[in-house]
Design a protein that fits this description.
3-stranded antiparallel β-sheet, 233 residues, globular, alpha/beta, 7 helices, Rossmann fold, 7-stranded parallel β-sheet
Length: 233
């Protein structure tokens, strides 16, 4: 794990810069960069800054999704809608391509299979957000994805979540050329402190992304350190 820690106030802007740097590194070797996007509160803070950076570039970038709720693309809970409000609030540029994961009226299993065919074999960059329970994408602890881990895109359901979801699996993350994990706030730091408590990715799915760069704020770092110190006493 590579850990980058930024001041709380400046975290979102710096996280956007790190994402942009990764995209530029990929574009040094090829004409188009394949980026898998995340949703969530962290992403909504970062994407406006990323949009400003991308507007300065004429490079081709293909944007995919790491997970999506099975709702219409204009629904308030849709990751696609979040991305359109934040990363593409000024519209999709001519050199950018955005591939929805779910269109709103299709069978979710069919949508998962179709997206599996659409995704590149190896994404250049996967952006992930750390969940309060240790989930990434829509791979939840002890979720139904355990039986489907050989697939690349699956339907992910868990009692208590508001909408059924579609998600990439560990297979996509392991094959990604680069991963950035976003985590901000005390709760996320406490989750990070538990990462080494179990080797079981089905118990703590975020362990799949340990090879990546984790971009966290000072509050998350302090909470992680305090939790680790408390457990060692």
């Amino acid at each position: 794990m590579e850990l980058l820690v930024f001041d709380d106030i400046e975290w979102a802007a710096n996280a956007a810069i790190e994402i942009y740097k990764n995209i530029q590194v990929s574009l040094n070797d090829k004409k188009i960069c394949n980026v898998v996007l995340t949703g969530g509160r962290s992403a909504s803070k970062i994407y406006p800054f990323l949009q400003d950076l991308l507007n300065e570039s004429s490079d081709q970038i293909a944007f995919y999704f790491g997970d999506e709720r099975c709702v219409p693309p204009d629904h308030e809970d849709s990751n696609y809608a979040l991305v359109m409000r934040t990363l593409f609030s000024n519209g999709i540029r001519f050199n950018h391509f955005v591939y929805k994961m779910y269109n709103g009226n299709e069978d979710k299993e069919t949508a998962a299979l179709n997206y599996e065919k659409l995704l590149p074999c190896s994404a250049d960059l996967v952006i992930l957000s750390l969940g309060d329970d240790g989930h990434i994408a829509s791979l939840f602890p002890k979720g139904s994805w355990k039986e489907l881990h050989n697939r690349r895109v699956i339907c992910s359901e868990l009692p208590g979540i508001r909408h059924p979801r579609i998600s990439v699996t560990a297979k996509v993350l392991v094959n990604a050329k680069s991963i950035i994990v976003l985590a901000s706030g005390k709760n996320k730091g406490q989750v990070m402190a538990k990462l080494n408590k179990s080797d079981d990715i089905f118990e703590i799915p975020a362990r799949i992304a340990l090879k990546g760069t984790w971009v966290i704020d000072q509050s998350a770092f302090n909470a992680m350190k305090d939790s680790i110190d408390a457990n060692q006493k």
